[in-house]
Amino acid sequence: MAVMTQDIVTNTKTVIQGLEALRHENRSIHSGLISSLEAISRDSSQNDPNVRLIEEKATIVQKSIENIELGLTEAEVMIALAGHLQTVEAEKQKLRTQVKRLCQENAWLRDELANTIQKLQVSEQKVAQLEEEKKHLEFMNSIKKYDVGETSESMDRSKNENENPLDLGFPDDDEEQHPEGLTPTPPGQMAAVANAGYEIPARLKTLHNLVIQYASQGRYEVAVPLCKQALEDLEKTSGHDHPDVATMLNILALVYRDQYKYREAANLLNDALSIREKTLGDHHPAVAATLNNLAVLYGKRGRYKEAEPLCIRALEIRERVLGKDHPDVAKQLNNLALLCQNQMKFNEVEAYYLRALDIYEKALGPDDPNVSKTKNNLASAYLKQGRFAEAEKLYKEVLTRAHEQEFGPIDNNNKPIWEIAEEREETKNENKDSSLFSDTCRNWYKAVEKCPTVASTLKNLGALYRKQGKLVAAVTLEDSALRARKEVGQLNIRSELI
After folding, report:
1. Which of 78, 174, 238, 429 sits a CA distance of 20 to 30 A from 247?
2. Is the model more confident about 452 or about 489?
C-alpha cells in the first residue's frame, strides 16, 4: 500500500511539472494572440476575418489554460490526500505495534495465570490428601478385622450379600439423565447364588461403600487415590490375577464412570473380565456381572453393536446358573431390549420385554417396581414405533396400579391421574382445579417416592397426549410429574438435614 501511494505521488508530481510548463506555453501564446488582435484591431475594421480568427484562437487557448489550472488543482489535492493517507498509515502501523505488544502481554499474563491455577490445584490436592491420610489409615486398620476368621464367616457373608447386595458395577441410573436406562449388575448378589467359588470379601464391601460415599460428594481426589492404593495393596499380596483384584478394578471403574472417563473405565472392566474368566471360569456369575457392566458402559458411549453380544453372553450365563425364570435374567433381558431398541430392532425389543415382564410378574408379583419399569420401557418402545394405542394402554396400567396401591380402589371419587387429565381435555379447561385433582396431585409424590418409574410414566404419557393433540391432558400430567418430583426432592433434602 505504501509503495503504491509513493508511485502515485511521484507520477502526480511529474504531471504537475508538465502541466506547469504547458500552462506557461499557453499563456505565452495567449499573450501573443492578444497583442496581434490589438494591432489588427487598430489597422482594420471589426468585420475583418483575421480579427475573428484570432479571437477564436485566443478563446480556445484561454480555455486550455483554465483546464490546465484545474488539472494542477486536482493534482495538488491528490498530493495532499496522499500525504494524509501516509499519515493514516503511519498511525495504523503504530496502533498495530501497540496491539501486538498488548497481545504479547496478554499471553504472558494468561501463562502466569495458568501456572498459578495449576499450582493452586496441586496445593489443594495435597491439602486434601493430608486431611484424608489419617482417615484412610484409620479405615485400613478398621478393615483388618475382616481378615480374621474370614473362612468361618463365609456363611454369614453369603447371607449378608443376599440381604444387602453389593453393586460393584454401576448404580441404577435415573432414566431422565440416562435415556438408555441400562441397569448394572450387583455382583455380590450373583456370587452369593453360586454353590461354590469366589465371594466378595467383606472388607471390599466396606471399601466400596466408602468410595461410593466420596464419589457421591464429588470428592474424586480422595476416592481415586483410595482405590488405587487398595488395588496396589491387593496386587502385592495376592497378585494381579486374583478375583479380589478384579473386584477392585470394578470399583475403580465405577469412579471413572462417574467422572465420565468412559475409556479408562472400559479398560478396567476388560481387565477385570479377563481375570475373572481366567480364575473363575467362563460361566461364573461374576463373569456375567462384568460382561453386563461392560455392556452398560458401551451402551452409554453409543457402541450398541459391541454391547449387544456382551449382553447376550451375560444372559446365557445367568440362565444357566440361575434358571430362565430368575429376576436377574429379567433384568438382563431389559438391558438387551434397550440395546436392541437403540438399533431399531423392535421385534427383538418386544420379545425381550414381554419375557422379562412375565418373569417379574411370576417371581415378584404385579406390584413390584420392576414390573412398572418394564411396562414403561415397553410402552416407550411402542411409542417410538407409532403404536400409540398399545403404548397408552401400558402407561395407564402403570399409573392405575400405582394409584390403587396408594389411594385405594378406583371409583367416581377416587380417579387415577390419567382419567382426570382426559376429563380436563374433554372440557378444555386446563385451569380447572377440582378438589379431586388437588388431592391426587398433592399426594401423588407418595406413589413416585415408592416407584420412581411412575414419574417417567407420567411424563411419557404426557408426551403421547401431545402427539395426539391432547394438550390440556398433556399439561396436566406433566404438571403432576413436576410437582411430584419436586416434593420427593424436598423430602430427600429434609431427611438429609435430619
Report:
1. 174
2. 452
- Distance from C-alpha of 94 to C-alpha of 100, rounded to nearest angstrom: 10
Quote the CA–CA distance of 380 and 387 in Å, as a whole number. Answer: 10
Q: What share of the chain is helix, strand, coil (3-state, %, to 5)?
A: 80, 0, 20
**The pLDDT of residue 169:** 30
Q: In the prediction, which pLDDT does 490 show?
A: 54
Q: What is the pLDDT of residues 420-435, one digit of tens each?
A: 888 888 887 655 455 4
CB 287, CB 281: distance < 8 Å: yes
Phi, psi of 286 (to 5 degrees): -65, -30
**288 within 8 A of 197, measured Cβ to Cβ:** no
Beta carbons of 333 and 381 less than 8 angstroms apart: no
Q: 255-308, pLDDT tens digit by residue? A: 888 888 999 999 999 999 999 999 998 889 999 999 998 999 998 888 999 999
Full-model pTM: 0.59
- Is 164 in a helix, a strand, or coil? coil
CA distances from 352 to 214, 346, 349, 374, 381 (A): 37, 10, 5, 10, 12
| DSSP-assigned beta bridge partners for residue 411 | 414
What are the DSSP calls for 29-86, one per residue? HHHHHHHHHHHHHHHS-TT-HHHHHHHHHHHHHHHHHHHHHHHHHHHHHHHHHHHHHH
